[in-house]
Amino acid sequence: MKRTIISSFCVLILMNITPAHAQVVIDLSVLTCKQLLDSDAGRQALISSWMGGYFSATKNLSELDIRYVKRNAKVVGSYCKTHRSDTVMNAMQKNWH
C-alpha cells in the first residue's frame, strides 16, 4: 500500500514537470550588442539574416543580396565590440548601408 502511494505521488510529480524550451522569440529592440556577441554562431547568423530582410523591407526591395548582408553583419559586429551596451537595433540603424 505504501509503495503504491509513493509510486502514484512520483507519477503525479513527473506529469507536472514540463521540459525546458528554447527561447523562441527574440526582441531585437532590447537585445544588446553584448548579448548578440555572446550568442552562438547559429543565433548570430539568424539575426544577421533577419537584419538583411528588415533593411531590404525598409527600402522596399524584394531581393536580398547576401554579399551586403555579410558585409553589414561584419560592420555591425565591429561596432558592437566597442559599444556592448548599445542595442542591436541601434547598432543596425547606425551602421547598415
Describe it.
By secondary structure, this protein is an all-alpha fold. It is 66% helix and 0% strand. It contains 5 helices and no strands. The protein has helices at residues 2-16, 33-38, 41-58, 66-82, 88-95. α3 packs across α4 and α4 crosses α5. The N and C termini lie far apart (72 Å). The model is unreliable at 7-12 (pLDDT under 50).
List descriptors:
97 residues; mainly alpha; 66% helix; 5 helices
Shape: globular
Q: State the end-to-end CA separation.
A: 72 Å
Over the alpha carbons, how many angstroms does the gyration radius reach?
Answer: 22 Å
Element order: H for helix, E for strand: HHHHH
Helix content: 55-70%
Average pLDDT works out at: 79
Secondary-structure-based class equals mainly alpha
DSSP helix count?
5
Strand content: under 5%
* Low-confidence spans: 7-12
The biggest sheet, with number of strands, parallel, antiparallel or mixed sense and barrel status, is: none
How many DSSP-defined strands? 0
SSE diagram, text form:
Elements: H1 2-16, H2 33-38, H3 41-58, H4 66-82, H5 88-95
Helix pairs in contact: 3-4, 4-5
Quick summary:
The radius of gyration is 22 Å and the shape is globular.
